[in-house]
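User: Good morning. I'm curious how zinc ion would be positioned relative to this chain. Could you predict the structure with it bound?
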Amino acid sequence: MLNELLEDYQEFNEDEALDEFLRLLWNSKYGCRTYKKFYTFNLQPSALNNNQELIDLFEPYQKIEIKHAKSYYKDKPSSIDMIRVHINNMYMYLTNEDVYLSKEYFNAKIQPKKLYYEATQKLKNGETIDVDELKDRIHKSQIQAEEFRQRDVDKKISISFREYKSIINNYILRLFNNYKPPHEYEKLYGWEITSYHNAWHEDNFIVKYFCKSLTGYMMNYMKSLKPKIEIIKKCNQCEVSYKPNSNRQKYCNVCSAETERKRQLIKWHKNKNKYKKLPN
Ligand SMILES: [Zn+2]
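Assistant: Good morning! Here's the predicted structure, ligand included:
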């Protein structure tokens, strides 16, 4: 299916094949979807020695909710749907404030669950628990989680799906032009891709080609959005801030010129006897 579209486009110059691909891609029923995952533990009062303070402390964290982007579907999406799901998820990665947050956020967020198991283990071993210290650790973990979340969200960009779609369309055109079917790929790179020698496998090859390439293109796009950092240095002599022309520059332009002038002067004094005086 996908291989036919790419072949028609490349071998017979059929622009309709690209149009058909884009039509199927954007009409796919797979939209941007997220799901909630719960990180739970079963609070057992007896495991906390029926200590009410501890029970109250852990109670609110029995069911910690974290959102994820949906990338697996049981209803067997077609090859083109799989590319669409990847495109959707990249969009959510770039823009959605609830999903694709860092591991650090995740770990801080579910910290109370770990602390619960740690506490029950301690009690089981007959150790005592400093409730205030524990309260503090839980509190801090949640503040940290919020800080990580904010940091992650600040890295996201705001771009409408429409805008995103037009960027992707340009990349897809490029991918249609650059595509090398497995048998050509083998000739070029000398790899035998035996498992791709039928239509179904070739489609898998194409899905991978699209997903990997689009990820690369989008990463470059993100990099291009980052403002270039302007390096400002402080002059070693007059402490004025300046924009260095090279990594090694230590003085501002004024001081650099001044030191250079002094250096030349010293050199001149040192060597002046070497120069023959011109006759009057
Ligand atoms: Zn200076």
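The longest helix spans residues 199-225. The pocket of zinc ion is lined by residues 235, 237-238, 240, 251-252, 254-255 (CB under 6 Å).
Let me know if you'd like a different ligand tried.
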